[in-house]
Task: inverse folding
């Protein structure tokens, strides 16, 4: 599936996009696990305790949260491992479709887990 993400948009940005998407998926999984633990334990904690700080500082903290995940993924999936010239279009489309469905299902699971915290205003 990782190779299916790599191909298609030019080699310069493909590796960065692939690793970034995997980082995002891992972050979503960490949120899902954190929310499940939060709901099972009944603890009252914040996932990102950043009250009233500047937006630039929030971006810096997110960068610091995501950088270790990104660096580990670059070691697990080096660029040479993703290059495979035997990839045909049908398997490429199949792997991309699988990833899109996987991403949508994960976001729906995340929304279902936090649905009790969502307040709709009329």
Result:
């Amino acid at each position: 599936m990782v190779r299916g993400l790599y191909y298609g948009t030019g080699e310069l940005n493909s590796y960065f996009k692939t690793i970034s998407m995997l980082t995002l998926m891992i972050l979503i999984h960490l949120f899902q696990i954190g929310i499940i633990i939060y709901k099972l334990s009944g603890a009252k904690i914040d996932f990102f305790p950043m009250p009233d700080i500047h937006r630039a500082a929030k971006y810096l903290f997110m960068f610091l949260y995501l950088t270790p995940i990104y660096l580990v993924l670059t070691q697990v999936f080096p660029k040479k491992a993703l290059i495979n010239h035997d990839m045909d279009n049908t398997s490429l489309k199949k792997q991309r479709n699988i990833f899109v469905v996987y991403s949508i299902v994960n976001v729906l699971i995340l929304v279902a887990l936090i649905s009790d915290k969502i307040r709709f205003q009329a």
Summary: Helices lie at 2-6, 11-41, 55-76, 79-82, 89-114.
